[in-house]
Amino acid sequence: MKRMLCILLSALAFFCLFSGCSKDKENETEKENHLSEEVDPDWPDGSIEDLERFDIDAYDRETYMVPVWNDGGIASAETVFVLAEKDGSVEPIQLLYPAKQIISVRNYGLGIRYEEGKDYKLTADGRLQILTGGSIKAMPYDSFYLDVYDPSSSANMPEIYGTGAQIYSEAIYENGEHRQGMTQWQVCVTYRHSALWSGSVPQDQSVYLKNTSAILNEDDENALKVACIGDSISQGWTASGYGNVDLAPHMPPYIELFISQLQEQYPNKRITLKNYSSAGKTSRWPLYEKDGIVNFETMIADAPDLIVIAFGMNDGGSIQPEDYGNNIQTLIDMINQKCPDSEIVLISSMLPNQEIKANWGDHQPLCNWQPSYKSVLYRITEAGRDKGIGIAFADVLSVYQHIVKTKRFADITSNNTNHPNDYMHRVYAQVLLQTIGCI
Questions:
Q1: Domains, the chain, ranges and CATH?
Q2: pTM beyond 0.85
Q3: Which of 31, 77, 184, 253 could form a disulfide with 188, with the two C-beta atoms 3.0–4.6 Å apart?
Q4: Could you give the C-alpha distances from 375 to 26, 199, 213, 228, 424, in angstroms and in order?
Q5: Closest of 82, 75, 16, 84 to residue 44, by C-alpha
Q6: Main-chain dihedrals φ then ψ at residue 306, nearest 5 degrees
């Protein structure tokens, strides 16, 4: 509660504009919302005692659901990857915002707190400096960047240029062993800053989701039935609390975060989730593959009130934007035909590692068509509204693209390939909540 009170107080110093998508401006969700350069640099007053309450040592949904684009001057448990240079040194690490004061640095699981001055320090330009000889360990340069790609090993991915490779390491519980993947070398930084988000701000589109809004806000016992269909990210990979990961701090995947936050905001409503997502799938799966067709038909037969569709990460390697759009449109048409009262949210995916190729098939770059899908989903959303369909577009990609202007991909991934870590799962949930008007 103290956290939220502080955020409300800080909001007096600045504001963000949220509005629905406009039909006559196709790039509305892509626009840059430049607000102002700084929040009040005197809030908080900067003393360690006053800021200590913002340190968290366990998963805290309330804190995690404070949006990165409007955090009130306190960035909480922001993940960074610690990588050594060839000589063993660690370069200062840039954060999402230039830090004014570091409140805490903890391991990925949040159970270990590191010591300022011994393990790390804040540089004059607001970056995190990991100190030599401290307790924070860096991944060796030669473990991350490999001179030669080894096709016999699944633990590396070929780089796009040259003959080298990068590590592939997934966080997973397998064969009785907890593997931390890339998160083993990530730390969580909570810090005070005085900068404001200058990227695209997700739009509140609740006006286009009238049935969902009515169910949530009406004083009755009607439950809100939510369904989700997508790829491994929507299935849960690789949030620390996902079933076959099971690592501290045990944070649920984004779709479960979304549901639990809705339940918190609407305690008198029963909100249910059925997740039909499956790892490795594309938008073709529910249309052309037998198990996918059955899965999709089962979802529609349940007549959900709100359906989240989140394909794109796996499509991007080989499915051109026109074909991707046709697939998504066909799914929408099938939903609208069989359960016209169901409303839909389309999600644009974050991007995979743009420096590597697949270690399977013909080794296509992992990032190919994905950036183009954003405008495709926007146009589909607008066309659906013209037909009277309740539909919204949760533009995760635009937020991701602003984040990686200052942060590295390794800071926000669990496997260095295509899966988000806890930080990016939080962003997915935040964008989805804002899209339906619940932040």
A1: 206-435 (3.40.50.1110)
A2: yes
A3: 77
A4: 8, 17, 26, 21, 21
A5: 75
A6: -135, 125
